[in-house]
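pinned: reference chain
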Amino acid sequence: MTNKREVFFSVDVETAGPIPGEFSLLSIGACSVFEPDKTFSCELKPVNRNFDPKALEVSGFSLDDLAQSGLDPEAAMRAFAKWVSEVAGTNGSPIFVGFNAPFDWSFVNYYFLRFTESNPFGFTALDIKALYMGATGCRWGDTRSSRIADRLHPTSAGTHDALRDALHQAELYRLIWSQLVEMP
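pinned: its C-alpha cells
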C-alpha cells in the first residue's frame, strides 16, 4: 500500500486515425486537473503516412507540415514524461484522465512504451464519461459532452485543439466531482 498523493492529469490527443501503431499521434495536450494553469502541449512528427481524411479534417493538421515542424516522437514523449514527473512531484502518483479515455490513453500508452519504454501513468486511465454515468445513473448515450455541458454548464468548450480540450475536460471533471460526487 502506498501513501502517495494522487495527481490527476487531463490528457487529450489528436491523431491521424483510429488506432495507434497504424496511425500517428499528432498532438498532445495536458493539464493538471486541479491546477489547470500547469499545462503541457506538443505536436509530433508522424511515424508514417497513414491517415483517415476525417481525422485530419477534424484536427486541421497536415502530415507534411508536422513532418517539418513536429517534435520527434521520442523527444515529445520524454518531454511529456518529464512534465508529468515534475507536476506530480516525488510523492505524487499520476492518474490519467480523459474524455473517452480508452482512445486517448491507447495512443499515449503506445507512444510511451514504443519510444521511452515506460508509461508514467501505468496501465490504467480514468474515463470522464464513465465517471459521469456512475455519478448520475444516466444511460451511456447521455454521456456525450454536449449533454454533460447542458447539465453542468462549463465555461469552456471542446475545440479539437488538444490543450484546449484537455482544459475543458479538466473543467468537466471538476464539475462532476463537485456537483455530483461530493454531495453533502
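why pinned: The chain has a mean pLDDT of 94. Strands lie at 5-15, 25-32, 35-43, 92-98, 126-127.
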